[in-house]
Amino acid sequence: MRITVFGATGGVGREVVHQALDAGHEVTAVVRDPARLPVAGHERLRVATVADVTDADALGPVLHGQDAVVCALGAHSNKQARLAPVAGPALGAIVSAMDRAGVRRLSAVSAAPLGPDHEDDGAFTRAVFMPLLRRALRDVYADLAVMEAVIGASGTQWTVIRPPKLLDSPRTGTYRRAVDANVPRGRSIGRADVADALLSALTDPTTTGHTLGVAT
Asked: How many other CB atoms sit within 10 Å of the CB of residue 205?
């Protein structure tokens, strides 16, 4: 499979690139600074420098001839999301460029707080913790909400992955999944397993048109 990865230098994006190459895929890693991508010189890796991922015209060359797109873009802080939203504007350009290039399959990472609370999470989590978290990172989640709306309204065959707290832990492949819901009592998951979920969704038609909660 030929896969274009946006956000390839981030924690999840780097894992997507590594795992996709290990699985035998051809990868186009879209970056602003190639020096931040630790993988170099791989025969199935193409590194494409794009200064502005909100410019649909600039994305044509990185999508031409591709089979799928993985998006791991997102704001690094609430301040960044407030001043310069990343995910929403970028996905608007990406799905537009995908349509022009004839690329249909898309998986993208969002966040568990955009999903519904689960009754098994307990009263404190539902009534106190989650509202506080959503308020503290409201601009990050607002940006991701715009991204999800853009994806949902697109003509792509999409899957949105919603993880809780991200950890730098090894890939296990044994995380829990919940379709159109959050995983009950799902507190965290490793970035490597989120990458696994993003890649696995590309070849799993049962996830098309759905959000997917993931957690350990």
From this structure: 11
- What Å distances lie between residue 117 and 100, 130, 138, 191, CA to CA? 37, 8, 16, 22
Whole-number Å distance between alpha carbons of 141 and 149: 12
Question: Could you tell me the domains of the chain?
Answer: 2-215 (3.40.50.720)
Q: What DSSP designation does 54 have?
A: T
Residue pointed to by tokens 């999409």? 158
Q: Could you count the other beta carbons within 10 Å of the beta carbon of residue 96?
A: 16
84: which 2 tokens? 């310069």
Q: How many Å apart are CA 13 and CA 33, to the nearest integer?
A: 14
Q: Spell out the residues 6+ positions from residue 40 whose beta carbon is closer than 8 angstroms to its own.
A: 47
Whole-angstrom distance, CA of residue 216 vs CA of residue 204: 20
CA angle 75, 76, 80 (to 5 degrees): 65
On whether the pTM is more than 0.70, the answer is yes
Strand-strand pairing, 157-162 and 26-31: unpaired
Predicted local distance difference test score (pLDDT) of residue 161:
98
* Structure confidence by residue, pLDDT tens digits, 8-48: 999 999 999 999 999 999 999 999 888 888 776 788 999 99
Cα dist. 120→185, 186, 189 in Å? Answer: 7, 10, 18
- Cα distance between residue 32 and residue 203, in whole Å: 28
Cα-flanking dihedrals φ and ψ of residue 70, to 5°?
A: -115, 125
